[in-house]
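User: What would this chain look like folded?
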Amino acid sequence: WLAEGARVLALAQRERAEKALRNALQLDPTLDQAWLLLTRTLAELGRHGEAHKTLEEGVRANPGSAPLREALRVAETVTGAGDPLLTARRLAEAGDHAAAVSTLDQVLRNPAFRAAPESAVVLVLRGCSKQALGRLDDALADFTAAVLINPAYALAHYDRADVLDDLGRHGEALRAIDDALRVDPAYADAW
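Assistant: Here's the prediction, encoded as structure tokens.
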């Protein structure tokens, strides 16, 4: 079930991924990767509160899991950026990308947060909104900054590849997708 969940998630079939990953966890609640993928799936479905609760449940089920504890720490740090981050997510999900960018600009003005590794998540969210607005060079700058801050953040590499492709820079896009695949092989079917 875990492999099937990862496969269909990479194909952006999030509802199917959720079902497969829940089945995997029902059979073996110690599967760290299943908890992490289920959390990501729920977040991609826009169910951020449920994603956070799922991550907390994973930590309770596996208190010795360093990857789950780290993911929860990152999630709480990002959420701790305050209401502006949650507001920006909701604005972006509603299609109001200009307001989302403005709100995320406020979050990133905090010098302490801007220097934190968790700021890569905010940069990717802002980059996605800029890309939706057609501000491709600005989006690329955000995705590149996110990759520099957190080279292990596969989504930042993937989104960087996507915007490079939109810019017609196909060779660079292929190199960026290779970077995403090195970090997380689940992105193989997504491109």
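The mean pLDDT is 85. If you want, I can go into more detail on any region.
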